[in-house]
Amino acid sequence: MSNFRFKALEVAQSRHAVPVAAPTERVGDFFGSYTFNNEVMRALLSPEAYLKVTEAISTNGQIDRNIADEVAGAMKSWATSKGATHYTHWFQPLTGETAEKHDAFFDITMEGKAVEKFKGSALVQQEPDASSFPNGGLRNTFEARGYTGWDPSSPAFLMDNGAGGKTLCIPSVFISYTGEALDYKTPLLKALNALDKAATAVCQYFDRNITKVTPTLGPEQEYFVVDRALFYARPDLVLAGRTVFGHAPARGQQLEDHYFGSIPPRVNAFMVDFEFESMKLGMPVRTRHNEVAPGQFEVAPTFEEVNLAVDHNALLMDLMEKIAAKHNLKVLFHEKPFAGVNGSGKHNNWSMGTNTGVNLLAPSTRPKESLRFLTFLVNVVKAVHDNADLLRASIASAGNEHRLGANEAPPAIVSVFLGEALTQTLNDLETKSEVTVNKGDNVYYKLGLNRIPSLMRDNTDRNRTSPFAFTGNKFEFRAVGSSANSASTMTVLNAIVADQLNKFKFDLDARLARGEKKELAIVDILKEYYANSKRILFEGNGYSDEWVEEAASRGLSNIKSSPEALGVFVQPESLALFERTGVMNHAEVESRYEIELEKYIKNVQIESRVMGDLAMNHVVSTALKYQNKLAETARNLVELGMASEAEPIKDILREISTRVIVIKKGVEAMIESRKKANNVTDTGERAKLYATEVKDHFDLIRYEVDKLEEVVDDEDWPLVKYRELLFVK
User: Fold this and answer.
1) pTM score of the predicted model
2) CATH topology of domain 193-584
3) How far is the C-alpha of 398 from the C-alpha of 408, rounded, in Å?
4) In which residue ranges of the chain is CATH 3.30.590.10 found?
5) What residue ranges carry the coiled-coil annotation (predicted)?
6) Where along the chain do the CATH 3.10.20.70 domains lie?
7) What is the structure's pLDDT at 542?
8) How far is CA 627 from each of CA 25, 284, 383, rounded to the nearest angstrom?
9) Per residue in 198-212, pLDDT tens?
């Protein structure tokens, strides 16, 4: 009997929901109370300083150092009044996690006295040791200097340390000593700036009052929740983030009863607690619900400016971990922590808004607005079509490789769903030069139940199998992995759309220079763009085998391997696009390619090592001990003259022996393939070997181990089982 497993189960089953009290009765009373937001700045800064800071944020301008001194003083006063003792530049290095180095709000004088201190120089810039952060060959390990710089467009916030103190967190960029970006935020900010300029220039053809375009994002975060004791009883979850073994329970998600079901009390208490803390930090989380798989849930926010939304999502994941610990729960962000049930994604809902309050992806029936909508819609479709492989590269990871193409996630084939009505509109545009967007009359369902109010039907249905789907007034990129930093995908998406809009402006200006009428020229260009990119549109079931065949016949890529997908980053056309838009230079792109490959290799390597350790030191040893018990039983039966009764037991003994032999040989072969891969110096080739030769052993070893789980006595099995992980809450 595995004492550790059953002790963990005993602990998990004895726990109850922890009561959570709201800070106040009204959300408005505490929303954003832990953020240095506009309201706080207006109250604490001089009118001149407040104006300069807000202008710098809206125009991407610089803030003078003298203004920074005043802001720093106001920040310190505000933060210390709420219990803060330290400050940090909070940044997002290419590890995939957030990073912070805390400094105290005081200094020591020559007389040995502590003096409160926080100047503008400390607000604007810090120097964390950068030697151990991923850099992809941009610098030598012994060169430690790197800089973080304040991003004023993302409000500073207070993080409760959980031990009586708070830290002022200042969202920041992170660059090397030679100026290259070492983080997710810096290229994202450049991509957003590129899209703002390109989209504003196109908007000027329709409305001169539009002087700024802001991309928006609402990332829906999926995740699993397990009891903390059960989590620590599974070494693979602790070390690799996913279960490398585990036989499917008799009941999984086949009844579809978990989806939108009643939230378990302990999980609900965690959600409520987490939401209250999120509201204090100005994160507008609005939706919570059970997802399809047992133990799986989702949280979704209101739309925000992309940079802020990305910061909030990174903060949200960190906060969820901390709050879950208070409730003796563990949040799992891995894309596929459990085989046989749905994995988790981070659906990125993206759109563009103007300073005049217009959503550029919202359909309209007015002719001029209709043409503007179609202009942006078609350019987005063409951008995705022309750069589908680059978008695919932006979501490539070891975790997402387990999920993409499975029954709950979009396939690795990038396609676009627009719905029947919009597709017909674009077909009419191509064939008849008609520019009419039919938003549709309000259609109501007639239920024949007088007590039920009339229900209105949307103009188009949703397609949850599409990786890039139009959902009414935005696009939903569903293929992003749940553990990913959305900045990577958003950098690519905003960069490719900016590049495409620049091309559109170039094509239109050339026609206008020839004296063509603006509206007719726009229509002709859109017709050409649509004709050249419509093969990427797909309305059907993206999970079907038929779509894989049809996509191949259309010439669409189906890049299944992460190393192969990541290689798109360093293709000449990708390097040229990033440089053309000013998002990243060649060295920065190539370094990210190297970093992502190394990350992939290390993740698969960890999974392989965990698998070998569990297989040999936990499963095989347990199976052999159980085999000895059975052998003793069989011998006793034979000695008692019951040889025929001993035969079924002998069959089990043979099965255990056969499976143990296969597992042992599989683990040995996996180790040899790992050694072979590790001897390859080229990172790309080494990653490909890990993706094929090392990972090729995973399914074989897992199959035999999971079969042994069905044979070995439940009392002896060492690993917490799926039925316990997924259903004990």
Assistant:
1) 0.94
2) Creatine Kinase; Chain A, domain 2 (3.30.590)
3) 17
4) 193-584
5) none
6) 31-182
7) 85
8) 61, 56, 60
9) 999 999 999 999 999
